[in-house]
Amino acid sequence: MLVPVFTLKLSHKILPRMVALGRYDGTHPCLAAATQAGKVFIHNPHARGQRTSTNRMVQSNQDSDISLLNINQAISCLASGVLNPQLGYDCLLVGTQTNLLAYDVYNNSDLFYREVSDGANAIVLGNLGDIPSPLAIIGGNCALQGFDYEGNDLFWTVTGDNVRSLALCDFDGDGKTELLVGSDDFDIRVFKQDEIVAEMSETETVTALNPMCGSRFGYALSNGTVGVYEKTNRYWRIKSKNQAISIHAFDLNSDGVSELITGWSNGKVDARNDRTGEVIFKDNFASSIAGVVEGDYRMDGSNQLICCSVDGEIRGYLPGGEEMKGNLMDTSAEQDMIRELSQKKQNLLLELRNYEESAKAELNTKKIDGQRGMIPANTQLQTALLVNLGSDNRSAHVELCISTTNDTIIRAVLIFAEGIFEGESHVVHPSPQNLSGCIRVPLTPAKDVPVDLHIKAFVGYRNSTQFHVFELTRQLPRFSMYALSSPDSSAEPLSFVNFTMNERPQRIIMWLNQSFLLPEDVEFQSVPFQVCFTSLRNAGQLCIKIKPGGEISINTDDIDLAGDIIQSMTSFLAIEDLQVEADFPAYFEELRKVLVKVDEHHAVNQRLTADMAEHSRLIRSMLLQAEDARCQGDMKIMKTHYIELYDLNRDLINQYKIRCNNHTELLNNLKAVNQAIQRAGQLRVGRPKAQVISACRDAIRSNNFHTLFRIMRVGAAPS
Amino acid sequence: MELSLARVDYLQVGVTAQKTMRLLPASGRKATQKVVVGDQDGVITCFGIKKGEAVPVFKTLPGQKIARLELGGALNTPQEKIFVATGSEVRGFTKRGKQFLSFETNLTESIKAMHISGADLFLCASYIYNHYCDCKDQHYYLSGDKINDVLCLPVHKVNCITPVLACQDRVLRVLQGSDLLYEVEVPGPPTVLALKNGNGGDSGEEIVYGTSDGKLGLTQITGTKPIPKCEVGNDKKRGGILCIDSFDIRGDGVKELLVGRDDGMLEIYNFQSADDLVLQYDHALPESITSIQGGCVGKDGYDEILVCTYSGWLTGLTTEPVHREGGSGEELKLSQEMQSKISSLRNELQHLQMKVLQEREKYQQSSQSSTAVSSVPAFNVNDKFTLNKDDASYSLILEVQTAIDNVLVQSDVPLDLLDVDKNSAVVSFSSCDSEPNSNFLLATYRCQANTTRLELKVRSIEGQYGTLQAYITPKIQPKTCQVHQYQIKPLSLHQKTHSIDHDRPMNTLMLKGQFSFAEIHSWVVFCLPEVPEKTPAGESITFYFQNTFLGTQLESTYRKGEGCFKSDNISTISILKDVLSKEATKRKINLNISYDINEESVRHTLKLIHPKLEYQQLLAKKVHLIDALRELQVHEGNVDFLLPKYRSILEEADQLLEEYKRQPAHLERLYGMITDLFIDKFKFKGTNVKSKVPLLLETLDGCDQDGLIAFFDAAA
């Protein structure tokens, strides 16, 4: 059994996910971790007694191995690594909601300190694609930004939602690394420089990503799922009721392939085979894991796996040697194997007996005994998906109708599906007097994604205590929340997207039949062709028209929907590049207002900062006056000064609150701007998409709103 | 010496009941013992171990399920005759498997517990105890509550037949002939009895008992009175005890106590001094341990503990080291043995798989026919629904012989489902439609692979009653599910006690009307947990209860045509009044209800609650401060500048957090109960004070005891 080679107990708390290991002097590995009160501590067990007390860093007075770095802000991400290859040692990067600090621990100096308005939720350090120098890439509110060692902003792009996790991985095997981005909208996107080359939809916020061997990478979600992808295919995933805090790739059994190491919120650490997900090692901590890193902490030439808990417990593990034969758990593998096989045997025997008994029961009884759960053998379960336009007391929804083919009843229905219910399942359990052979389940998916519904229905009779479980799977099409409507029923939306493609209209109709929930399949008659839909969510209209010459236009006021339709259609038709012409007057007007607000907020912010400086100057002088008065024994004047000081302090607090509000609003607006750029990109595919995004960025930098809207409309800057 | 035991799995039989596995005494030159086990398919399997392989000695044909298996024989000879209790019959087998006895008892119910001593046979059905000598009826006793186990003190030591019954109502009943000698009160419902050291100690009068709430005790049964020796609580919150044995596993000449629990924990205790039990060793198995015995089974010269689990696994924990030092040749042989075992199993599996595939096809085909019926396979579910005294919540334990796929939990009363740490299942709450389908709780537990045991915890609110249902779907084909129901009673947080404090100010509820003793008893069963369903013998009966959350009490005395309920908690009386009148109306019985409300009782109850409230409020406040104080500590480097009050919070931070985590929503529950008390107090006066509840809640935050009492007094 594998046991830790070292265990440390640090007296500092460690914030989850904020652990990094670096050789800040080029040789000695040190552990850096964020702790409470906006501090980062650096644990350096190799150089005792060297006291440094300048600038940011102070030696902790509790522990001589630990130095503390004061950030004075809540730390949101932490990383270390080589940023400047000429330096020859690692630097420490600390991100907060407003700033990014690159810090040279050895010289105790700042490399750069940049303001990042989109915040830094996640950080990764390394080479990206063709960019020669290593970058510190941070992910914030819908934006990604990469800085080199001088703080130059060499990489910028937008993504669909707030970034939660980042990783660098050679995704397509071309020898250059791609950027993996996990975000709040459950997506993992792969950026080849600033172009999205792949997108995988997951079922929850992606909280961690980690490269493994080759084009394989591990991921973790906020609902307790961890798994491994090879390119766009998922090898395996498991779900636990606990949350995965940190994942890391490490070859623990010395077989030459890294395992996925997961640190869980209940203090468990496990190592899983990257191909199968089988657990090969596990250990338990007393409290939640904060981070899992690797490094040669003992300086003996081999890397250890280092796990840190939030209570400051650190354990290091050496990979299992030859003699352990990859068997890291304490029970003998053979025993387990025998047990597993016997269990299988027992299950098969049980199944066999079940069939025998069933056959026997068939012979003996011709009368149906509902109590014991007998039902006619030809009972079938039928399902249908329909669009229900709703009534006075029910809003419009998609309806899943499940029914039996005879007099049996459905006691309960369990639907396991990801992303459309609050939990992972939805239960319908009618009361005894409402039991029937048919159950209608209203579904209202919040997002336009295809969903697999795994249905389990308990079928029996009213008095049954045992039920048959019918299991089946139905797929909910991607655009199921849109009901077919007649073309002239309402005014056509003003907004549109127009594009041309050389595809037979029949193929587009195929896509239509597959992606929408239609009462019957649409037949293609002739060009021009038109279909209209009404959204069940907000009654918005959607029209898709095919005109002669392969010209297609999509009319809807919902820019997200337009983007989704284009992405879905092009991936179905395998189109790599697509340029479009688009106009969304209402949305663009809103965006214009947002841009104006952003400017206003910036102005307010500047004014407030100036005020604050003024106030702090006042405070200093007032404090001096008050203390003077105290020294002179003039209590009355001292008191007045302190009262004034108190008032001033209150003002400052109030102003601080205003600043806070201003800042959050600014952030929201900036997010809206980033999202707008992302949406404009979503309307295009491939190269035009990347072009639109970078052109929009340039337009925003130069504050040229007119050009921005033009780019969004036609996809290129006027030249 | 540190005890190190290695686990070996021998064989799997069918699902087993409590105490159905024994080791036959060693015979002849051989030191290894044979194992005999009876399962719920009615099969008795006897086997020995040769070279790590289970070699069967005999196996009987399936029949009714086996409830108990004991060994017997003439006194002072090897006890090697096998007796099993199935249904209402006792059968005897020789160690070779020849049946020599089939004794059809005159019991109308099936046998639940059995003890054998020489020619004396002690049998218990649910409530009935019967003593037979040479299969002739000798004595009979009707117990007030369910009998879980029976034992007789060793006859050769105490010179008279002294049977002891372990009864569900937390007493051991000591009998003499057909009469009750005396009752021994024990801290929980006893589930198993065993003689100390297997012989009752030096006096032959000492017995060990285990309870369903995980407590263990030793007591001496003398001719006139019990002498309690020691008691081991259940601080680690482990499962209930199902089996106990004494065996000298350490080989030091002193017998240790082996204990098997229903959460799969195996424990070894020893008697530190004469009467002090100390835990020496524990080992976790994945499912309930139904039987346990120490002996020598696997290999000559190595003692081991043999356990039998719920799904029928016979597992040994042996002192034989797994990897012996040196002699790598031997190890190689060992692994070869294993390899051959594995490959033979694999072959067997392949064969079975083929057969199953054929059968599956046949089954599929049968579903085409319109006349055929399809039945669902029955599977056994071992369930337990009990009230935990410590945190006033219910735990529901479900155990199935095969892996569980998912469990749907549904309730028609508001219940809180709490997280259980050792559960690995992914829980998902579904939105509930209380109208029109009266669902207040809908949750699914999707189990991880190989989970056969699931533990849930629910918290109920007194006064709201209904049914909790669990739909259990195991991972067997054809897919099927079983529903199990559990009653949430109106006074769900009450537990039976042996005695109450009569000096407290009491409120009284009197019922009079044309009802029979059986009728009022059924109403009490409906209202309160732990009341035996059978109508008690005699003309009237008194039960005492305690509220596990608040510590208030209830005394209920009733007879034909009359019932009297006394409690110091006015809410308890109010709930009883509502439920009883509703039940009586349902049966169209005219009830004459009168009550006597003692103003003093409200003040008394408040005094009882307030310290708890204050403690919880303080705890919440302290926990709130911990993070801020920790930050100060980091900032300043030390804590010398802090007030002692705050320094102590920092020092105790971990315990405080632990405690806070252990009792979630404790404060809210207290608030709820005080509010109920407030409403109920005035309900009896005929005033509705619901509008004043927000004011009460405001008063509760940071209010002293007198203030609270004053508010209660003033609100009128």
TrEMBL record, chain A:
<dbReference type="InterPro" id="IPR029333">
    <property type="entry name" value="BBS2_GAE_dom"/>
</dbReference>
<keyword id="KW-0963">Cytoplasm</keyword>
<dbReference type="InterPro" id="IPR036322">
    <property type="entry name" value="WD40_repeat_dom_sf"/>
</dbReference>
<feature type="domain" description="Ciliary BBSome complex subunit 2 N-terminal">
    <location>
        <begin position="20"/>
        <end position="126"/>
    </location>
</feature>
<dbReference type="Pfam" id="PF23350">
    <property type="entry name" value="BBS2_pf"/>
</dbReference>
<feature type="domain" description="BBS2 GAE">
    <location>
        <begin position="394"/>
        <end position="479"/>
    </location>
</feature>
<dbReference type="InterPro" id="IPR055381">
    <property type="entry name" value="BBS2_CtH_dom"/>
</dbReference>
<dbReference type="GO" id="GO:0036064">
    <property type="term" value="C:ciliary basal body"/>
</dbReference>
<keyword id="KW-0969">Cilium</keyword>
<feature type="domain" description="BBS2 C-terminal helix bundle">
    <location>
        <begin position="687"/>
        <end position="713"/>
    </location>
</feature>
<dbReference type="InterPro" id="IPR029430">
    <property type="entry name" value="BBS2_N"/>
</dbReference>
<keyword id="KW-0206">Cytoskeleton</keyword>
<dbReference type="GO" id="GO:0043005">
    <property type="term" value="C:neuron projection"/>
</dbReference>
<dbReference type="GO" id="GO:1905515">
    <property type="term" value="P:non-motile cilium assembly"/>
</dbReference>
<protein>
    <recommendedName>
        <fullName>Bardet-Biedl syndrome 2 protein homolog</fullName>
    </recommendedName>
</protein>
<dbReference type="InterPro" id="IPR055380">
    <property type="entry name" value="BBS2_hp_dom"/>
</dbReference>
<keyword id="KW-1003">Cell membrane</keyword>
<dbReference type="Pfam" id="PF14783">
    <property type="entry name" value="BBS2_Mid"/>
</dbReference>
<dbReference type="GO" id="GO:0031514">
    <property type="term" value="C:motile cilium"/>
</dbReference>
<dbReference type="GO" id="GO:0060170">
    <property type="term" value="C:ciliary membrane"/>
</dbReference>
<dbReference type="Pfam" id="PF14782">
    <property type="entry name" value="BBS2_GAE"/>
</dbReference>
<dbReference type="InterPro" id="IPR016616">
    <property type="entry name" value="Bardet-Biedl_syndrome_2_prot"/>
</dbReference>
From TrEMBL, chain B:
<dbReference type="InterPro" id="IPR056334">
    <property type="entry name" value="BBS7_GAE_dom"/>
</dbReference>
<dbReference type="InterPro" id="IPR056335">
    <property type="entry name" value="BBS7_hairpin"/>
</dbReference>
<dbReference type="InterPro" id="IPR056332">
    <property type="entry name" value="Beta-prop_BBS7"/>
</dbReference>
<keyword id="KW-0966">Cell projection</keyword>
<dbReference type="Pfam" id="PF23743">
    <property type="entry name" value="Beta-prop_BBS7"/>
</dbReference>
<dbReference type="GO" id="GO:0043005">
    <property type="term" value="C:neuron projection"/>
</dbReference>
<dbReference type="InterPro" id="IPR056333">
    <property type="entry name" value="BBS7_pf_dom"/>
</dbReference>
<feature type="domain" description="BBS7 beta-propeller">
    <location>
        <begin position="21"/>
        <end position="319"/>
    </location>
</feature>
<dbReference type="GO" id="GO:0016020">
    <property type="term" value="C:membrane"/>
</dbReference>
<keyword id="KW-0653">Protein transport</keyword>
<dbReference type="Pfam" id="PF23349">
    <property type="entry name" value="BBS7_hp"/>
</dbReference>
<feature type="domain" description="BBS7 helical hairpin">
    <location>
        <begin position="599"/>
        <end position="712"/>
    </location>
</feature>
<feature type="domain" description="BBS7 platform">
    <location>
        <begin position="494"/>
        <end position="596"/>
    </location>
</feature>
<dbReference type="InterPro" id="IPR036322">
    <property type="entry name" value="WD40_repeat_dom_sf"/>
</dbReference>
<keyword id="KW-0963">Cytoplasm</keyword>
<dbReference type="Pfam" id="PF23360">
    <property type="entry name" value="BBS7_GAE"/>
</dbReference>
<keyword id="KW-0813">Transport</keyword>
<dbReference type="InterPro" id="IPR016575">
    <property type="entry name" value="Bardet-Biedl_syndrome_7_prot"/>
</dbReference>
<keyword id="KW-0969">Cilium</keyword>
<keyword id="KW-0970">Cilium biogenesis/degradation</keyword>
<dbReference type="Pfam" id="PF23361">
    <property type="entry name" value="BBS7_pf"/>
</dbReference>
<dbReference type="GO" id="GO:0015031">
    <property type="term" value="P:protein transport"/>
</dbReference>
